[in-house]
Design brief:
It contains 12 helices and 10 strands. The chain is an alpha+beta fold and about 290 residues long. Helix 4 runs antiparallel to helix 5 (about 155-175), helix 6 (about 185-200) crosses helix 8 (about 220-230) and helix 6 (about 185-200) packs parallel to helix 9 (about 235-250). Mean pLDDT is about 80; it is low at about 1-5, about 110-120 and about 180.
């Protein structure tokens, strides 16, 4: 049974420093990256984050997808995705927009249905920006600041929502890589389908046979395809997703180890602990304290 993680609480602390550039706890705009805590371990937040970097570089992963980007670029992280920073350059600077899950869900589903923006960003959350794209995003942030400052305007929130919808319409071609025009080998397509299935089901399914059945393949053939296409076995991919989620929950929530074990559908806390220690080299409790 899934349990909802209690997220990190730094959002409120940041909001208190910049009251003129936020709307309650739901919509926060940041220009000073020194106010943003940087966690050099996997973590997850129940909010949508839009980050634009105008200077510097960053390396890490979002939901196991690696990135190594230099300015100017944009990153969109949807609620409850697992982030992991591995390196951030000392000169890193830009803008950051944080939206609560409840705020984003009020208007994003309509866009998702029309444009499939959600699935596009899920597959490709990074966008390298050209000068024209950078100018557009700068104008977007400038308008946001102006709207947020209109505290006497009763339509301030609606203005912010509609302006953000405009941004999402602009974002689609930047964050979606078309696969229609790219001819891929059959094995590469199977590998992508397998990883997509793992991403959707790893919390409840850790058996390679489950994924092989979904893809109408034998477990042996699936394992061969995944190993030859990605360099990692199917079971290693599954373990990687499970452990990434476990590490994020241990570090960025107050869930008990038993709750995390339940959320990842382990038969017992003891079984989860042995599984975690076999792969990480430390027990869940030791990892949380470290």
């Amino acid at each position: 049974m899934n349990k909802k993680a209690t997220p990190l609480t730094w959002q409120t602390d940041v909001k208190n420093k910049i009251k003129n550039e936020s709307i309650g706890n739901d919509f926060v705009l940041l220009d000073d990256f020194s106010e943003i805590p940087v966690f050099m371990y996997p973590f997850k937040l129940d909010m949508l984050i839009f980050l634009i970097c105008e200077k510097g570089s960053v390396r890490g992963t979002v939901e196991m997808q690696p990135y190594n980007l230099s300015a100017p670029f944009a990153v969109i992280v949807r609620p409850n995705q697992v982030m992991h920073y591995e390196y951030i350059s000392p000169d890193f600077s830009g803008h950051c927009l944080i939206m609560s899950n409840s705020f984003a869900s009020e208007f994003l589903p309509n866009i998702d249905k029309q444009m499939l923006v959600a699935s596009a960003i899920q597959e490709n959350p990074f966008a390298q920006l050209d000068e024209e794209g950078l100018r557009f995003v700068r104008r977007y942030f400038l308008m946001l600041k102006k709207f947020i400052a209109m505290t006497d305007n009763p339509y301030r929130l609606e203005m912010v929502k509609h302006l953000t919808m405009v941004f999402y319409y602009w974002a689609r071609p930047h964050f979606q890589v078309s696969v229609d025009t790219v001819k891929q080998p059959r094995q590469a397509i199977l590998a992508e389908q397998f990883i997509s299935l793992v991403r959707e089901n790893y919390r409840s399914e850790r058996d390679t046979a489950f994924y092989a059945e979904k893809l109408c393949l034998t477990p042996k053939y699936l394992s061969h395809v995944i190993k030859s296409s990605t360099g990692k076995s199917a079971s290693e991919w599954i373990d990687d997703y499970v452990i990434l989620e476990a590490r994020a929950l241990l570090k960025s929530t107050n869930m008990t180890i038993q709750q995390i074990s339940d959320a990842l559908n382990f038969p017992s806390q003891s079984f989860f602990g042995k599984y975690f220690k076999r792969i990480v080299g430390a027990s869940p409790r030791e990892y949380r304290r470290g």
